[in-house]
């Protein structure tokens, strides 16, 4: 069989590359993506390998590119992505790339530092501007009070600013100034209040006020006002809200205390002149400096923007180049150096069919590097298990992913993926069968297939959408198969299509039909005798009493039929594995008993279903009328337990065909006899073969020397040890075979019953669709007039949302998971081990894709 049904044949090769050509050859192999290298230096530390310095240089370049990318995204500049993948640059080009990235990073950091300093200066000037404005308002609101003395100092005057216009009473002045302030009102004493002004974050202001009050014992006066426009923090660019405050106090001690509190709350203090003229002059100077700063800031931002726009045009290509260089040197670190230090030696797994393609790529790399020594690719003999490599395309990739999620196939084991392409959507459709719901799913899948190039180019990080898009072909096939089974069930949104006309006819008049709710149609008189051409007759849609009974019997039987056929197919697949690997013992003593056991019990039950459908009918006379039809389940239970069947009704026969009892007894005895064959035959034959092999190894006859005698003695003791090890291995074989046999025998029963989920989910899906139609949409259809149109529109929208959300999405997900279980457990357990490891070639495409995904996270 080809690689579609089995994994590719792999070869372990040894590769000899000249040191000068190694970089170019590995680059060509990375573009090809068909070689998996092995690490020939597993004991060497990563920091002690030959090309560790080059890898560090690439890490440093990646760091600089990430810094540029962060700055570009911060400014919202679109990055050009042509979708092309440039070739890996030559090693000498690394110096140019490093110089370019170093220049860009230094220039950008310098611009950012200058911009941050300018913004910090602008913030300080803006805060100072607000302080000068607000404090001017504070001082304008205060009422000057002049104290005169009647003593010798009557000519001296002093002016103080009381608390504010609304706090001019003497009690508040005494509270602010204390006893010292009261004495200051006496003749000959001059009192002066100091103040500090600054800004503080608005959320810290309440705690700031409480701390001032407690620390200064109420001997300060605080006045604050909010700055209406938010200010930009120069360190992170966030918008912050601040308030201006001014604190009046008396004495140097309070001044020191106030400044320490301001420092603790990270409030910024600014110099504020006492004289109004000085404040106005300072305000004019601040405004002039702010205008100059705005001009310089604008020019700085323009220059920064130009630098980032130029970098954004090449950033994606730079990332690709650096990641390719890093991947090449990381791969070269896996190689060994020969004794001459002029040749690199590598070991790699390659697909056997692609050896010529790999050799051509190596030749191209050698020519590109200018080397005169051609590379050498030798195939090696090995007993190691090769990796598993299944070629896929965009159609088969999703189905292969379903299989690999269970376990990667062992090397050259039968690959279930090609068969899953048909069986998976079909079993899904058996549970999801509805023409309308299947059409919605198929159209969604078809839309993703038609738009796949544009949707793939978007590269969104939405995990749910990526799962849907990755399985677009599965969704499309599941929808198409569901439309087919919906036609078979004659079910579209819980209604039927009367395409060919019902083959049942009414023998009652109209008044009888309208007045009686429980009428029956007799197959003998009301049925034409020929079945509906395709699917179920639409008459069953209006059968309220026995519709579910009829559907139950039909869907339950087809579930068992499909399940048994699916399991038999799985057992037949194991025959392909045994013949390919030439495992004669497993072929004779596992495959044949398993197949016989399954055929004589469960396939025989399927045959009884077809015999019952063919021989018994309502139009037949006894003993083949519908009253004489036996129960298949009861017949199967009596067969396995060797029970005597119950007496049939009058004029009916006990068995469906002649010799049925003898055949059933024979089948059960043969099936039971297959169990000890599966359990004991293989371990006993292996034990016998090993015993014969041990008997063929005889001690050396005629040994006379002590050395020879010692050798014989040691060999005998070693042989005994080996026998003991073989006994342990045989015990493990017996245990494993016992588990395998018990699992298969009991699993055959449980797996057959497990396929009844096809019937259960199909019935549940149909009933949910009928509930939505009866309890939602039919209400809108019963309304009349203009209001009825509005009601119908609203009801239809609600019904459509429930249909898509519950019946298509939730029921579809449930049916998908049940189908997945049927394939993983019931089908693949018959032949699929899944104990291999995946082929992971050195591929630039995979490395770049993984690097981009990691960067987005």
From TrEMBL:
Q: Where is this region: Disordered?
A: 705-725
Q: A cellular component term (GO) from this record?
A: vacuolar proton-transporting V-type ATPase, V0 domain
Molecular function in Gene Ontology: ATPase binding; proton-transporting ATPase activity, rotational mechanism
Compositional bias (Gly residues) = 712-722
Membrane topology value: Multi-pass membrane protein
Query: Hey, which family's this protein in?
Result: Belongs to the V-ATPase 116 kDa subunit family.
Protein name from the UniProt record: V-type proton ATPase subunit a
What is the primary gene name for this protein?
LOC117145728
């Amino acid at each position: 069989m080809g690689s579609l049904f089995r994994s590719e044949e792999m070869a372990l090769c040894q590769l000899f590359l000249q040191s000068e050509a190694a970089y170019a050859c590995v680059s060509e192999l990375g573009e090809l993506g068909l070689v998996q290298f092995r690490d020939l230096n597993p004991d060497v530390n990563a920091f002690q390998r030959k090309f560790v310095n080059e890898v560090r240089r690439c890490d440093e370049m990646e760091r600089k590119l990430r810094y540029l990318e962060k700055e570009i995204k911060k400014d919202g500049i679109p990055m050009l992505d042509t979708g092309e993948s440039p070739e890996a640059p030559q090693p000498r080009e690394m110096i140019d790339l490093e110089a370019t990235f170093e220049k860009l990073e230094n220039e950008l950091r310098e611009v950012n530092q200058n911009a941050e300093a300018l913004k910090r200066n602008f913030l300080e000037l803006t805060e100072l501007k607000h302080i000068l404005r607000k404090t001017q308002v504070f001082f304008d609101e205060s009422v000057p009070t002049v104290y005169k003395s009647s003593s010798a100092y009557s000519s001296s005057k002093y002016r103080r600013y009381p608390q504010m216009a609304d706090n001019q009473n003497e009690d508040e002045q005494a509270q602010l100034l204390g006893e010292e302030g009261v004495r200051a009102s006496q003749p000959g004493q001059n009192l002066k209040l100091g103040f500090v002004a600054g800004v503080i974050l608005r959320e810290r202001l309440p705690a700031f006020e409480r701390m001032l009050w407690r620390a200064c014992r109420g001997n300060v006066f605080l006045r604050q006002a909010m700055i209406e426009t938010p200010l930009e923090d120069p360190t992170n660019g966030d918008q912050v809200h601040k308030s201006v405050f001014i604190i009046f106090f008396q004495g140097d001690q309070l001044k020191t205390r106030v400044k320490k509190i301001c420092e603790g709350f990270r409030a910024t203090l600014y110099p504020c002149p006492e004289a109004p003229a000085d404040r106005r002059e300072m305000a004019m100077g601040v405004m002039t400096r702010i205008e100059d700063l705005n001009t310089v800031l604008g020019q700085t931002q323009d220059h920064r923007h130009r630098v980032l726009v130029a970098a954004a045009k090449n950033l994606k290509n730079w990332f690709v180049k650096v990641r390719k260089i890093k991947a090449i040197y990381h791969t070269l670190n896996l190689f060994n150096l020969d004794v001459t230090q002029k040749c690199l030696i590598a070991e790699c797994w390659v697909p056997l069919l692609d050896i010529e393609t790999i050799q051509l790529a190596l030749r191209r790399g050698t020519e590109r590097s200018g080397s005169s020594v051609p590379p050498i690719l030798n195939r090696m003999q090995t007993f190691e298990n090769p990796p598993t490599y299944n070629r896929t395309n965009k159609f088969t990739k999703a189905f292969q992913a379903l299989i690999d999620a269970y376990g990667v196939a062992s090397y050259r084991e039968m690959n279930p993926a090609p068969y899953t392409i048909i069986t998976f959507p079909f079993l899904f459709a058996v549970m999801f069968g509805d023409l309308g719901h299947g059409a919605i799913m198929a159209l969604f899948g078809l839309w993703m297939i038609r738009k796949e190039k544009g949707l793939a180019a978007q590269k969104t990080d939405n995990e749910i959408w990526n799962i849907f898009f990755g399985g677009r072909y599965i969704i499309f096939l599941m929808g198409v198969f569901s439309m087919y089974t919906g036609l078979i069930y004659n079910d579209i949104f819980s209604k039927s299509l009367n395409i060919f006309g019902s083959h049942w006819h009414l023998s009652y008049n109209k008044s009888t039909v309208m007045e009686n709710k429980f009428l029956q149609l007799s197959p003998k008189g009301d049925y034409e005798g020929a079945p509906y051409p395709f699917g179920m007759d639409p008459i069953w849609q209006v059968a309220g009493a026995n519709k579910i009974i009829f559907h139950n019997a039909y869907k339950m039987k087809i579930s068992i039929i499909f399940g048994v056929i699916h399991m038999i197919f799985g057992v037949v697949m194991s025959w392909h594995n045994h013949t390919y690997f030439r495992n004669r013992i497993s072929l004779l003593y596992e495959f044949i008993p398993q197949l016989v056991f399954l055929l004589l019990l469960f396939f025989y039950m399927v045959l009884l279903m077809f015999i019952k459908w063919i021989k018994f009918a309502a139009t037949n006379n006894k003993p083949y009328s519908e009253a004489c039809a036996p129960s298949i389940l009861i017949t199967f239970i009596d067969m396995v337990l060797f029970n005597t069947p119950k007496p049939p009704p009058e004029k009916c026969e006990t068995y469906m065909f002649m010799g049925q009892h003898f055949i059933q007894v024979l089948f059960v005895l043969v099936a039971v006899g297959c169990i000890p064959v599966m359990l004991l035959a293989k371990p006993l034959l292996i034990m016998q073969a090993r015993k014969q092999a041990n008997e063929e190894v005889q001690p050396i006859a005629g040994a006379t020397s002590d050395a020879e005698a010692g050798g014989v003695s040691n060999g005998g003791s070693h042989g005994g040890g080996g026998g003991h090890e073989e006994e342990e291995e045989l015990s493990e074989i017996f245990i494993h075979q016992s588990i395998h046999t018990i699992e298969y025998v009991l699993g055959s029963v449980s797996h057959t019953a497990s396929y009844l989920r096809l019937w259960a989910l199909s019935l549940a899906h149909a009933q949910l669709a009928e509930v939505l139609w009866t309890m939602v949409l039919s209400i809108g259809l019963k309304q009349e007039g203009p209001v009825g149109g509005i009601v119908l529109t609203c009801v239809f929208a609600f019904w459509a949302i429930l249909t898509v959300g519950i019946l298509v999405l939730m029921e579809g997900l449930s049916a998908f998971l049940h189908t997945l279980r049927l394939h993983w457990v019931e089908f693949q357990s018959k032949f699929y081990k899944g104990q291999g490891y995946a082929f992971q070639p050195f591929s630039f495409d995979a490395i770049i894709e993984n690097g981009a995904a990691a960067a987005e996270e």
